[in-house]
Automatic annotation (TrEMBL):
Stored InterPro entries: Arc_rbn_hlx_hlx (IPR013321), CopG (IPR002145), Ribbon_hlx_hlx (IPR010985)
Name by which UniProt lists this protein: CopG family transcriptional regulator
Organism per entry: Sulfobacillus thermotolerans
One Pfam family cited in the UniProt record for this chain: RHH_1
Ranges for domain Ribbon-helix-helix protein CopG: 3-39
Length: 89
């Protein structure tokens, strides 16, 4: 996860803090939940995005041998992501 700053008006923040205290959760949990819900609704309604993503997944699958272990693919992706982040620092 990455840290970010957002600006809320006083009422929004007051209500979020109230809910957080009631449920004994951090305000950030509610903000992440709201962002997830927003993104899901946007992506579900974006037919172009869905078809593009489906096509991308199919292209990737067609290039990967069925003999390759999915766990190895995941490890390779994590390692590449770590390398990129390290170089950026």
């Amino acid at each position: 996860m990455q840290r970010t700053n957002i600006y809320l008006d006083e009422d929004q923040l007051r209500l979020l803090k109230h809910l957080a205290a009631e449920e004994n959760k951090p305000v950030a949990d509610f903000v992440r939940q709201a962002v997830d819900q927003f993104l899901r609704s946007r992506l579900e309604n974006d037919v172009t995005w869905q078809s593009d993503m489906t096509a991308l997944i199919e292209r990737v699958r067609s290039r990967v041998s069925p003999a390759i272990d999915p766990d190895q693919i995941e490890r390779d992706i994590r390692e590449a992501r770590h390398d990129v982040r390290t170089r950026r620092r």
